[in-house]
Amino acid sequence: MWRCKVFKSKRYFRIFDGDDVYKCLYKFNQYFEIEEIPNGNKLKLTTYYLEGKALYWHQNCMSIENVVVIWNNYVEPLYCRFRGQKDLLEELKDLKHEGDLETYIQDFNML
Q: Under DSSP, is residue 19 helix (H, G, I), strand (E, B) or coil?
């Protein structure tokens, strides 16, 4: 009879300082899924790894008394605050194929 040992991975949880919110939220959600983080712990874990302008923003948001915030309600304001002034559809429309195909595909995927 085969026995498999189940273990939790020790993956790196990314620090978020306000830069590249798209990548960061994607990585956060990957981590939550892989590590099977319960919904009630996602916000606690995330806020521990905030630094710089992201941490200051969080502290201001959480200064409102008697407000209970859960991860699903936190993501949208975080995204809105740190996504910048880019209009991604406009950038996608303006994307031109210049150079090699792999670079174009990479640029397209990033948008």
A: coil
Q: Is residue 27 part of a domain?
A: yes
Predicted TM-score of the model (pTM):
0.64
Residues 54 and 82: beta-carbon distance below 8 Å: yes
Those residues whose C-beta lies under 8 Å from the C-beta of residue 26, and which sit 6 or more positions away, are none
pLDDT in tens, 35-85: 999 998 999 899 999 999 999 999 888 777 667 788 888 898 898 888 875
Residue 4 forms part of a structural domain: no
Is position 46 within any domain? yes
Instruction: Report the number of distinct structural domains present in the chain.
Output: 1
DSSP for 33-99, written as a single string: HHHT--HHHHHHHHHHTB-HHHHHHHHHHTTSTT----HHHHHHHHHHHHSTT--HHHHHHH----S
∠ CA 25-27-30, nearest 5°, is 110
Boundaries of domain holding 71 = 12-85
Residue 7 falls within a domain, yes or no?
Answer: no
